[in-house]
Amino acid sequence: KCVELNPDWWKGYVRLGQAVEMVDGAAAAFDVYMRGLRVSPGNPKLEGKLADVYRKSLGGKSELQSSPLTTGGCRVVLEHVHAMLQLLRCVAQRDWGGIA
């Protein structure tokens, strides 16, 4: 709700990202933190949260093992990973214009 009321408040994205991560997992929270970085480029708190969920989403072997993926599912996962890596490159280089 806080992001709806004040979309320019970076701390709202931190709180929303934490809630999303608890309910939907690290990969879902990644998008929230990226939106926060668009509002507050270079924010160290958001960058740290983004790095945390990125590491968690790559290390989630138990999630992948419990959910068998079809060939199409694997393709979707690889596309998502590619997009996440591109976003991470933009964050690391602080290239906010490269974020679509």
Strand and helix layout:
Layout: H1 2-5, H2 10-24, H3 26-39, H4 44-58, H5 61-66, H6 71-92
Q: Could you give a short description of this structure?
A:
The protein has 100 residues and is mainly α.
Summarize the structure in words:
The protein has 100 residues and is mostly helical. The chain is 76% helix and 0% strand. It is built from six helices and no strands. The chain has helices at 2-5, 10-24, 26-39, 44-58, 61-66, 71-92. The two termini are 24 Å apart.
Mean residue pLDDT:
78
| End-to-end distance | 24 Å
Shape: globular
Q: Please state the oligomeric state of the protein chains shown.
A: single chain
Specify the number of helices. 6
What keyword list fits this structure?
100 residues; mainly alpha; 76% helix
